[in-house]
Amino acid sequence: MSSSLLIHGGPILTMNPAQPRVEAVGIAQGRVVTAGALDHVRAELGTRVEDIDLRGRTATPGLYDAHAHVMGVGFAASDVDISSNAVTSIADIRRAVRERAGATTPGGWVIGRGYDQALLSEQRHPTRFDLDEAAPETPVALWRTCHHIMVANSTALELAGITRNTPDPSDGTIDRDERGEPTGVLRESATGAVTNAIGLASEDEIAAALEIGGNAFRQYGITSVAEAGIRRPEELRAYQRLRANGTLALRTWLMMIIDETLDELIALGIRSGFGDEWLRIGNAKLFSDGSIGGRTARMSRPYEGEIDNYGLLMIPAEEIAEKVLRAHTAGFQLGIHAIGDAAIGHVLDAYEAAQRAVPREDPRFRIEHCSILDEGLLDRIQRLGAVPIPGTTFLHDMRPVYLQNLGRERVRYAYAMRTFADRGIIAAASSDAPVSTQNPMVGIQTMVTRKDRLGDEIFPEERVSLEEAIAAYTTHGAYASFAEHEKGMLAPGMLADVAIFETDLSQVAPDELGNVRCDMTIADGAVVYERAAAPVA
């Protein structure tokens, strides 16, 4: 950790309402010690100072992705890329699968991630028959971009024991053709049989994925993240190992999945916030529904063209309420995955009931994703002081499938950052990576423009300013994890986490913000990432 740093020479957005822009920031011993006029900061720091001249570039607090899967990003690095950036058709997917299968050793699997049927020329999901043509003997499992749907080939279905006689689980479905045969498309928990056949990652493999994933986030100026789901002891041990040996790349808020971890945590007397400034036990988490792209998010009205499909509830509403009350009573913050409006309503019911039963001064209930809203739900969120965690890149990547599945009217308040701000609702930005890119500048561009990857606009009245978008990735993320006293601002006493971008962000056309690169990431007062071609400070 460097003894002292002086950052100056460009726009410094502190996100501190009392001092929003300064000429310079001084850092010592991992903390911001002073901010203000350059002469004042230089005098405060004294001698033996490392000087970082921005040369007109923008500096902000280190960014906070409030809902992402760092492990998933690490594991995805070795999977077949079938995202819309890499494929445009099922023929492209077959080609990619065939190539990987040819390089896969006997007994190995071909795993791919990222397709979106709404962006494929065929306008449908791949099927096992498509994949069998590309890999007749090698097992194949491909995740849709939402990670709530998988397509498996016949070999993979056989290894998973899925046949025409396999019943649908209560919280998932096996798509079948007109003869009752599985098509290979598996939704929600129906994917579990295939993932079990693939096998669980070891602690060593998880630790390696965390290093890869964490360093990938650092390249975008991200210094903090909420890891969106710890289920297994191996996952928690891997995080602790990296913290102990100094290789944990990101300050991490660990969401603990209730069904797999809550009993043990309660027995040990552990609750949200346990840990240190690098690694903390976070909110208790449940899944209440699925995804819009998979037509499994629970809606109050049926999906377009499917009069009987309202999506899925992962567990009954009364069970959601029971689990929320137990975690709330034990002192946990709650953060429940809820995308459809009906699911969000059930989650709010559970939160309101828990707070009535066991009042807490500041429970700060989170709603992970919090996608499809109406004014009634917004009123309830505002009254409760709940914190939405919108996927601020989702509309950029998935606007077409949202409109196909829900129509325009129901998307009116999807990721409605302007409405949140006007109502005083603090909403923290997130990527849900690897569902969407972890690049926060794409999320910032989407919030500022309300345009998707094709340039098509959706409800532009929900646009926010550049400064408001940056706040969603800094102060709001800190608030969502009770960390506003230590990060999210460049103010005296705060952690010395800084992101430096390649240019003056205020001079970038809104439609080009997603292309802006991070030149330098600072954590604990030390440079932890520097872009190879960045100008010398």
What is the structure about, briefly put?
The protein is of the alpha/beta class and 537 residues long.
Give a verbal description of the structure.
- The strands form four sheets. Strands 6-13-14-15-16-17-18 form a seven-stranded parallel sheet. It has a six-stranded mixed sheet with strand order 7-8-9-10-12-11. A four-stranded mixed sheet has the order 3-2-1-4, with helices on one face.
- It has 17 helices and 21 strands.
- The chain is α/β, with parallel strands linked by helices.
- A hairpin with a 2-residue loop joins strand 20 (518-523) and strand 21.
- The protein has helices spanning 38-45, 70-76, 90-102, 128-134, 154-160, 192-198, 203-218, 233-245, 258-268, 317-329, 341-357, 375-384, 394-406, 417-422, 440-449, 466-472, 475-480, and strands spanning 4-13, 21-28, 31-36, 50-53, 59-61, 63-68, 80-81, 110-115, 140-144, 149-152, 172-176, 182-188, 222-230, 251-257, 279-287, 334-338, 366-369, 387-389, 498-501, 518-523, 526-530.
- The radius of gyration is 23 Å and the shape is globular.
- The longest helix has 17 residues, at 341-357.
Largest sheet, strands/sense/barrel: 7 strands, parallel
What is the 3D form?
globular
Content of β-strand: 15-25%
Rounded mean pLDDT is 96
Name the structural class. alpha/beta
Low-confidence stretches: none
| Strand line-up in the sheet with most strands | 6-13-14-15-16-17-18
Number of helices: 17
Q: Estimate percent helicity.
A: 25-40%
User: Whole-Å distance between the termini?
Assistant: 18 Å
Quaternary organisation of the protein chains: single chain
Radius of gyration: 23 Å
Q: Count the strands?
A: 21
